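Shipment paperwork, digital attachment
Item: protein structure file
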Amino acid sequence: MIERHKKILEILASKNKVSVSELSELLSVSEVTIRSDLTELAEKGKVLRVHGAAQLLEERIRQEYSFQIRKNQNSQNKIKIGKYASQFVSSYDSILLDSSTTVLSMAKSLRENDDLKEITIIPTGIWTAIELMSCQNFNVLLPSGYLRNISGSITGIPTSEFFQNLNINKAFLGAWGISIEHGLTDSHLLEIELKKIIIKFAKEVIILVDGSKFLQNGLSTYSSFKNVSKIITDNTAPKKIIKKIKAIGVDVHIVN
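Attachment content:
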């Protein structure tokens, strides 16, 4: 039952409202069982019952579950990539971490490293900023801008202006997709423009992507490979594409 309740909340996180019959079909249980589940979840303040359907009671809960779904996709590979990437950060560095869930895994690894001191970290995602809140030996500098409600990223004109007077040693970025034909792509125009600006002001750009990102393309390209010094990925990345990227001159690291 606990697992079923979790699945119901995940489904509701991806849709504004879901009917009892739809939940019954998706979870392969009776509508009676679903109604009972929704009643219990409503009593706990998690969902709101509406005319034979349900929706999450608070937008905050929906955002948290939406984020958890993204974070849990290929989670073990993301953790390995994030841990590996953290070795490229030294004390007194100034680094930027974008709002991707793979880069969030890197933030967790940095938080657990007590040897790092006086690092200035600029997170462009609210979830990454929250992850770094307890780090007393890091200086966390938040950009100004608009909070995107789907990804938790901070974007917009104020954010763009924020970077113009900063010296960023290393920028760690994710991508929606990566390919020889289109380079590094993303799916949201404001985030694409923000990453273009970050690449312009960062001394070194390091891309963190799990192997699944080599099989898809986002809406638009935010960078070619010529602006990238390193790509860190896992051993599920297609070998033929990795070989071609290395031939271009990019340092590719494969995490097992």
